[in-house]
What we know:
Blueprint: E1 3-6, E2 17-22, H1 31-40, H2 42-49, E3 59-63, E4 71-76, H3 87-104, E5 109-113, H4 124-139, E6 145-149, H5 158-162, H6 164-181, H7 188-202, H8 227-233, H9 240-250, H10 255-261, H11 266-274, H12 282-291, H13 296-305, H14 315-325, H15 331-340
Parallel strand pairs: 1-6, 2-4, 2-5, 5-6
Antiparallel strand pairs: 3-4
Amino acid sequence: MPLTMVRNDITKMRVDAVVNAANASLLGGGGVDGAIHSAAGPQLLEACRALHGCRTGEAKITPGYRLPCRYVIHTVGPIWQDGRHGEPALLASCYRRSLELAEANGCASIAFPLISAGAYGYPLGQALRVATDTIAGYLLGHEMEVVLVVFGRDAVQLGSRLFPDIAVCIDDAYVQSHSEAGGRKLSRRRQGALYMEEERAAAPFLCDAAPFSGDAAPFPCSAAPSRELDERLGRLDEGFSQMLLRKIDEKHMTDAACYRRANIDRRLFHKIKSNPGYRPEKTTVLAFAIALELPLEETREMLMKAGFALSHSTPFDIIVEYFIERGNYNVFEINEALFAFDQSLIGG
Length: 348
């Protein structure tokens, strides 16, 4: 996935470059800055001395030394005042300059912390939006794997804080699903009996027979597959890959525009394109539905082509449906919400 978000220790990220949210002196500090200097060892401090500081919104590069990365890119984020002193532009510049510096040094992957969101006081939701918007804009014209190491492991109730409307939708769906189930609990034995009844109804040609053995006929009962079944199998609907390519043509999109808007790796897209029988993950199907801005009914159809469905039994499905119903097809904003509620992200 070109842009993903994780909860992790940035000093453990195995990427080509990690970004350090540094202060203007570049001589170390607290938080992410202190952790990176500690993990990289004293050589990093000596390399930073030779850089003679860094201005807010700019970025400079050093080797990674003891870190599991080739480079450390040091950038200085703005201190939050009130949002009217150039903070958004300066913060966006931190991400953009770091990405440019990584690409200039041959990096194929980079990990960012959430710059300025700690001691510098930038509001969490706004800092996250600047990060994803800037990175997403850069990736529209560049090939790079970007990881946003957003929150610590002790983050609690993040989704409710950043996305209260979605939290309400999830709660409502939970209450509704449990209300509908009330009074209809079945015993395990009855559930098993109903399952067997459904299986028999779905496969009426099955019959009781001895277990298959090597000497037995392949169809021990009289109702072998008929010519009608062969004819039906010969009239298969288009698969997921075929529907995807058809929709790209109908939307007059290029392949590159589609997979980049879907937050899908180019190699995965070409694998899907070259294999009509490709079976994707559910997150991949939804990524393309979002990129193509399909309405909810067509999204459900595309999911069905790959053997999936949307339901109100999981927060993941509710969140995706929430955005589609409101006409918001920004995959990165959707992933912000999914990440905040500890759900899988959309993309390859």
